[in-house]
Design brief:
This protein has a five-stranded antiparallel sheet with strand order 6-5-9-8-7, with helices on both faces. The chain starts with 10 loop residues before the first strand and ends with a strand. It is 53% helix and 17% strand. Strand 15 and strand 16 form a beta hairpin. The protein is an alpha/beta fold.
Length: 584
């Protein structure tokens, strides 16, 4: 009896065959002798993880070590893709049937069914199943690799030819086909497999793009085997190309490249709607990634420009703050000079009596020195004469008063100079050009420094009523907040024309510090209240105000994430309420 020769798959035999194998079966057998018990078989199986089919011969004599080897394959090696055909004696059939699920035995046959023809059919059937499952597995692996690449590429800084080459290789592997990657001008960027790089693709590419227009479709499927591009590709490759898929890589209206996938009859037969949809979604996803990356780059450029503009605005605003400070210093200069001149003049006036006291005391010291020398000389007459002179001189300069008055003059002079130092320190803190650094500071101490600068303007007719805590810690810039106090108090002083009262209260409510500053002046007219924070707006005569005072106050409070509100005073006067978050 004859049979049509077929190409048998590679296989291995575990256990002794009941009869001699035919030549065609033996030619595909991967070992010269059947596999047996022990480590040698396990070592061989470990080295051949891609073996498609294993035929097992189980008898009552070998079923124990057969169990061990099957357990080693499935549990130790975790090889679940190997197809197992098991021929067993009748006595072992039941025990093997119990393990058919656990060990994934695909065919369980009685040993008496063994024949070369039957074995060939089983090998061919299990080989087809192995290849089908392997193809599905490779397809899943290719899809997973593609999805992983898309997820990873979404985080890349740029998308260029490198990324196009990577996705071209993945898509080609997914279809198991051949492909050509082109740049926007239809010039060759790469071939898959790489061995096709040396071939002449010029005529084929010209044939693809003759009369070609890019449509809005993500991909273009061409199934006409008679198209010039397919015929020319067939001549170059040596394989019969029956169809192709062209994938343009787009970014908005711009084409970044093309992938031309060439398909044989077998590959066309495996092409299904799901694969086409996957290609379309991949092209769309890549388009989204490229467009998003380009948009992000444009936004980054715009963001950098806005940051630079914002930095310039901050610099300009800071200069305006400083200009307002200099303006305030100009208005304060005369009063500060007077404030410094008073203690300095007082100190200078103390030097005249101090000179007289030092002169008299120097003379007494000289006489005492002469008197000490007479003690050594033993001249009693001269000693008595010097004693009388010293007593007369002490009475004439009133030594007791001089000693008392010297300490008083020094203490008064020290107090006067301390006052000068305090004024200079407050002035320095106020005049220093504030930067944007912030830190914790005491709002109460900041207020006291500001009032110290304005002390000369607080005439006898103006009083300050204070309601302050011991400390009011705030995060921010103390120099800027000092300018807020200076501007508001100075406005109140000017408004009251030398007669009135200023009330200052700092209280804590929840997570805020509330500053209330009011006066007994005429207040702000209703028709200008909406403009008081506008830069350069002022109600003072020309040359007496810059119009930046309240504008600067508003900007500083806003920078500290606070808010300021004008409230009409009770009866008359102005009242400003400032709320600052403690963690500003």
């Amino acid at each position: 009896m004859s049979y049509t020769p077929v190409v048998l798959p590679e296989w291995a035999l575990l256990g002794q065959a009941p009869v001699d194998l035919s030549d065609d079966l033996r030619s595909c057998l991967q070992t010269s002798e059947p596999l047996g018990p022990g480590k040698a078989t396990q070592k061989w199986l470990k080295k051949h993880p891609d073996l498609p089919v294993l035929v097992v011969i189980a008898t009552t004599d070998n079923h124990v070590w057969i169990f061990e080897q099957l357990m080693f394959i499935r549990e130790r090696l975790q090889n679940t893709q190997l197809r197992i055909i098991c021929f067993t004696e009748e006595e072992c059939m039941e025990s093997f049937a119990e393990q058919i699920q656990g060990w994934q035995i695909h065919r369980l046959q009685a040993l008496q069914e063994w024949s070369d023809g039957f074995l060939r059919n089983l090998l061919m059937a299990e080989s087809e199943a192995f290849n089908a499952i392997g193809g599905q597995r490779r397809r899943r692996e290719s899809e997973l690799a593609l999805l992983t690449w898309l997820a990873r590429t979404g985080r890349d800084e740029s998308l260029g030819n490198k990324q196009l080459r990577e996705v071209a290789a993945l898509l080609t592997d997914l279809l198991g086909a051949r492909s050509v990657l082109l740049d926007p001008d239809h010039e060759l960027l790469g071939t898959y497999p790489a061995e096709m790089q040396g071939l002449s693709w010029h005529d084929t590419l010209d044939a693809q793009f003759v009369g070609f227009t890019v449509s809005e479709q993500p991909i273009r499927v061409q199934l006409d085997a008679t198209l010039p591009v397919h015929e020319k590709a067939t001549d170059i490759i040596g394989a019969h190309i029956r169809g192709s898929i062209l994938i343009p890589f787009r970014c908005y209206e711009e084409i970044r490249g093309y992938l031309l996938i060439l398909l044989t009859s077998e590959q066309l037969a495996n092409l299904d709607v799901g694969t086409v949809n996957l290609l379309e979604k991949t092209a769309d996803q890549l388009r989204v990634l490229i467009e998003r990356r380009q948009s992000e780059q444009r936004l980054r450029v715009q963001y950098d420009r806005l940051q630079e503009t914002l930095k310039q605005l901050y610099s300009t605003q800071e200069q305006l703050f400083h200009a307002e400070k200099l303006s305030s210093l100009g208005q304060l200069a005369a009063g500060i000079a007077h404030e410094i001149n008073n203690p300095v003049s007082f100190v200078l006036s103390n030097f005249e009596p101090l000179d007289e006291y030092i002169s008299g005391m120097s003379e007494l010291i000289r006489l005492h020195d002469q008197f000490a020398q007479t003690l050594d000389a033993g001249d009693e007459q001269l000693r008595q004469q010097l004693r009388n002179t010293i007593q007369d001189r002490e009475k004439s300069i009133d030594l007791e008063f001089v000693l008392e008055d010297v300490f008083s003059l020094v203490a008064d002079s020290r107090n006067g100079l301390s006052r000068v130092c305090e004024i200079v320190k407050n002035l320095k803190n106020f005049a220093h050009k504030d930067q944007l650094e912030s830190g914790d500071f005491d709002l109460v101490a900041c207020y006291h420094d500001s009032v110290g600068i304005l002390r000369h303007q607080l005439q006898d007719g103006i009083s300050i009523v204070e309601q302050l805590p011991d400390k009011a810690l705030l995060e921010g810039n103390s120099g800027m907040m000092g300018q807020v106090f200076i501007n508001l108090i100075q406005n109140s002083i000017h408004a009251m024309s030398g007669q009135g009262s200023i009330s200052v209260a700092i209280t804590e409510v929840a997570d805020e510090w509330i500053i209330q500053l009011s006066d007994t002046g005429p207040g702000i007219p209703d028709d200008v209240r909406a403009k008081i924070y506008d830069p350069f707006f002022t109600t003072k005569p020309v040359g007496e105000g810059t119009g930046l005072g309240l504008s600067t106050v508003y900007s500083i409070i806003e920078r500290h994430k606070g808010r300021i509100e004008y409230k009409a005073g009770e009866g008359s006067g102005a009242c400003f309420e400032i709320r600052l978050p403690r963690g500003a």
